[in-house]
Amino acid sequence: MTEVIGNGRACTTNPLKLSPALGGSLAFLGIDRCLPLLHGSQGCTAFALVLMVRHFREAIPLQTTAMSELSTILGGADNVETAIGNIYDRAKPRVIGICSTALTDTRGEDIEGELRQTLAGHDEWVDLDVVLAPTPDYAGGLQEGWAAAITAIIDELVPEGSGTRTLRQVNLLPGSHLTPGDVEEVRELIESFGLATIVLPDLAGSLDGHVPDEHVPTSLGGTTVEAIRAMGRSRMTLAIGEQMRSPAAALERRTGVPFRVFTSLTGLEATDTFVAALMEIAGSGVAERLKRQRSRLVDTMLDAHFHFSGRSIAIAAEPDLLLAMSTLVAAMGASIDCAVTTVASPAASRVPSARVTIGDLDDLERGAEGADLIIANANGRQAAERLNVPLYRTGFPIFDRLGAAQRLSVGYRGTAAVLCEIGNVLMDRGHGAHAHHEQTPAREGTFDAQAAAH
Amino acid sequence: MSGAAWKQKVTKAFDEPGCATNRGKSDGDRKRGCSAKSLTPGAAAGGCAFDGAKIALQPIADAAHLVHGPIACEGNSWDSRNVASSGPTLYRTGFTTDLGEFDIIHGGEKKLYRAIKEIVARHAPPAVFVYVTCVPALIGDDVEAVCAAATERLATPIIPVMAPGFAGSKNLGNKLAGQTLLDYVIGTREPAETTACDINILGEYNVAGELWQITPLLDRLGVRVLASISGDGRYEKIATAHRAKLNMVVCSQALVALAREMEARFSIPFFEGSFYGISDTSTALREIAARLVSAGAPEDLLERTEALIAEEEARAWRRLAPYRDRLEGKRVLLYTGGVKSWSVVSALKEVGMVIVGTSVRKSTEEDKSRIVELLGEDAPTFGQIPAKEMWRMLSAGEADILMSGGRTQFVALKTKTPWLDINQERHHAYAGYDGMIALVAQIDAALHNPVWAEVRRPAPWEATP
Q1: I need a labelling partner for A20 at 20 to 30 A (CA). Which of A228, B222, B403, B436 fits?
Q2: CA of A135: which chain B residue's CA is closest?
Q3: All domains of chain B, ordered by start, with CATH?
Q4: Of the candidates A27, A452, A451, A387, which has an alpha carbon nearest to the alpha carbon of residue A201?
């Protein structure tokens, strides 16, 4: 059993955690023609905006209710109303996704009730849906905010009641740890079984990095409201990551659509589990192409395991990503000697390591001394530099590498890709202090000799 | 601090007799601050007061910067500014109390004190700046009292920075940061020695190392930067800033109030200048020399300054000349503001570029008159350009290159227009004589990159048969 404990310090040093409102905004950006609105001071929006721009290298539509000291004390309903009006007039979005912050939730006003009142007074906003996600800073980090927004979208936009089920349609709820590239890969995987897929949210449609024909002031692409409304007609919901259990359960409560949670889609076993489920749902075999992809992954694992075997790896990530990455490298023979995450979660307690610290990148730095590799977001760069340990970047933000949106780590192909990337870093690193280039062939020789003896 | 006292402080921060724009405003407008970006819900852009305070103080490289607030304030923003240090790196460490629900219900003062204690025990910094954010301000944490107690018990200056985000804009935060330095830092130490040529530079944050394009010039003249506020700054040196003979204010909108107050308290004269552009750099150096000499520095400083200017200008224009053939007639759209709306114009004109427009949305009257001086009465100036309109302009090919900040970067790129970053996230240093050469070299590289021809190719299915 993995021990999950806090670091016992009052001061968070080099934060790993990001704000839930940032996660909520990111989820809203996967809705077509949506404009996320942070209910807080304008700095709340500015910081989140800058970080997303640096990660995706895209313009990010994100607005603020621009709360002042006075409006915070008197109540923010007027600011919300003004903001919605201004956004509606200027950008004509289909959906406005409001994320609350610690500032607005600390005062404890009834944002939801006041929003209902406001909307009731504006008949002219007929073609607009407004979704409110509770994402105060003290309720977790990015992944918790993401999940809260998806639950809010489901509660607001999916009609209650079970309509006619479409046998060949499923819902996919990807966790925040999947990149736009990952989402597209999973969609293609599901569709290869002849199943229509409603993805919520669909960052592959909006933040994949593409060149549009004209200026659009909202999100561009993503899940349409019409598709969201049709989710109750799907046969099953496939939730990726423990964080998506709650949104999937909300959807089941509203519509009766059953769900399955897949903790990760990274790794051979994880992908096999998912593919087996798809075979069952579709009632069919798998495409030859997929069999070949699996075979190539197995071959990659055989080639790569030499470089992972006995290596010491330190990982810092939000719970679902931590579980996915640590399970992957542990399955290749590496040991997770330091694992750091942001909040307690069922995913954290399944990490293949003696202990998971709920802490910060300073905990990572303390625990990664002598490690062969650090796996963390780009903010792990300071620790990596000081310890002279290579950094493999994953998660959010990755502001100092190109192509963050297109990185692939799910399915057979994605697993093979990420194993090669990490394996190459480990190969450069060599084995311990006595590393030399001859080591790898020598080990292979030993392996061959053992194989021959058997 | 009581609410009324704090209100007074904010009002005072915006009362700026040293600024022409400010004097021309109504009382109401003055209270709203000098940022042109309004705080309209649903149509606002830009950072908050906390952001502004942190921008102004975080370059103090050997101090610890602790953010007292929920995770968003520091978690979403730490280590994101490209300001350089020649030594200490503690300023790049992100410290926050990461207030949780329990702290908010029971108050965050105890946690704050423990966090300060942990930082002092582990890093022994010369000082800790504690930034108050909205939530502790709302729940009434007495941060000034915690800092006072910690200063005494830990024998380290613990400095409260009272600039919660909801107080106003980034610009207000800059001003409040200056006020903090006056209240707690400047004048608390004495320098080991003083010279007749000691100056402070205010409002230069050493983005991409720009300060280091200036200091070699000052070194050659024997002018000593006693305190840089705050680029590549050191706490002890800023504490001695009251002994300088002259203050030069570089980013005038941010720290001119600090300069004015230092003049009143310590009789240090100040002037506003810029190190962007060749002639401006020369003007700034001349001004420094003249004012130091009139305050008692050796007379020969004037001559030496003229000699250095003559040499550097000749060298700079010589180095710019080769770009003329490549850049003559190229049309540039400048979308920035303040001094940058004109300070780079003379260098661009020198290499034959055509300024098709420059933005005056953040410019003072003086900035505007400089633009007219450089570009004539019909100077193509404009205010805010909506993204949609800028998209149209660039799609229609009305400019060959856009020089702007990150906000409009993707409008340029998505319309397949060359773009150059000249705002605070930039990675190249453009100050002083060398900086202007670097800027022109970057424009040249951006314009002549072969990628533009390639990405503008029609797709096979778009090609006319």
Answers
A1: A228
A2: B72
A3: 45-184 (3.40.50.1980), 198-319 (3.40.50.12380), 323-427 (3.40.50.12380)
A4: A27
Q: Which of residues 131-150 of A touch B (CB under 8 A)?
A: 136-139, 141
- Put simply, whether A44 touches B (Cβ < 8 Å) is yes
* Residue among A50, A84, A137 minimizing CB distance to B70: A137
If you average pLDDT over residues A126-131, what whole number do you get? 96
The two three-digit tokens of residue A210, written as one number = 């593409």
Q: What is the CATH number of domain A20-157?
A: 3.40.50.1980
pLDDT at B369 (0 to 100):
78
Q: Which of A17, A25, A35, A47 to mutate to test the interface with B (most CBs of B within 10 A)?
A: A47
Provide the pLDDT for residue B366.
Answer: 73
- Dist. CA B266–CA A213, nearest whole Å: 59
> What pLDDT is attached to residue B425?
65
List the domain boundaries for chain A.
20-157, 169-285, 291-439
Do the chains contact at B135 and A48, CB–CB below 8 Å? Answer: no
Q: Which residue is closest to B119 within chain A, CA to CA?
A: A11
Q: Cis omega before residue B230 (within 30°)?
A: yes
Sheet of strand A12-13, all strands in order from the earlier edge strand to the far edge: A12-13, B95-96, B64-68, B128-132, B158-161
Asked if the domains A20-157 and A169-285 are classified in one and the same CATH topology, the answer is: yes
A291-439: CATH topology is Rossmann fold (3.40.50)
Angstrom distance (rounded) from CA B301 to CA A160 = 82
pLDDT computed for residue B183 by the predictor: 97
Contact A379 B78 (CB under 8 A): yes
- The ipTM, to two decimals, is 0.93
The pTM for the full model equals: 0.93
Q: Which CATH architecture has domain A169-285?
A: 3-Layer(aba) Sandwich (3.40)
At B7-46, the pLDDT tens digits run 566 666 656 555 555 555 555 555 554 443 458 999 887 8
CB contact under 8 A, B51 and A69: no
